[in-house]
Structure of Sensory transduction protein RegX3:
Amino acid sequence: MRLLLVEDDNHVAAALSAVLARHGFDVTHARSGEEALRALLPDSGPPFGVVLLDLGLPDQDGFQVCGRIRKRTTTPVIMVTARADVRSRIHGLNLGADDYVVKPYDTMELLARIHAVSRRTLPAEPAAGPEETTDGRQPPLRIGPVTLDLPTRQVAVDGTTISLTRKEFDLLALLAQRPGVVFRREQIISEVWRTSWEGTGRTLEVHIASLRSKLRMPALIETVRGVGYRLVSPAV
């Protein structure tokens, strides 16, 4: 995967680039906002899979850079910064960042977050060959008796349509696109609610409980204690 690292500290960038390279990433280092935006131009090479964006850049604030990135590409953006306050987290996510990591961070956690945001973008890419229906539409997701039609936002259990709220559908669709994969609570809040974890945890629990009730399959969504949730494919 090509990765764009936007970091003005050369020492930090060199150390992180070495780690990313050992894990198979092709890293391009940009030292300023303008350099990063030039690297993202369509004719500058193969598309990037993820952008790691520092906020303290020499030419412009990273929040401004994120907003400009979002106007030209859907490439996932992870903000990597020392700004740990809740306002900054919320502002970054509202601008379109896919995740927000506070320095100092654990390198393995950062790698996990990179893989997580890249996985979440896969369903948005054009499908090909047998993964498309004959009319070019994305086929429904099927997990046991549950069917999710993403384009029409319809859910059915054993052929019976189930009425879900917008957030309930978004939550179920997120889990259903990667059955068996554990999604962290913070990750779900960021993806579905586009905000940070603080103050939203109870909302997530309520939506999980509502989904289990409406689908009449309590075991479909498994709680992974201390981590988050995953969708469990029912035994055939």
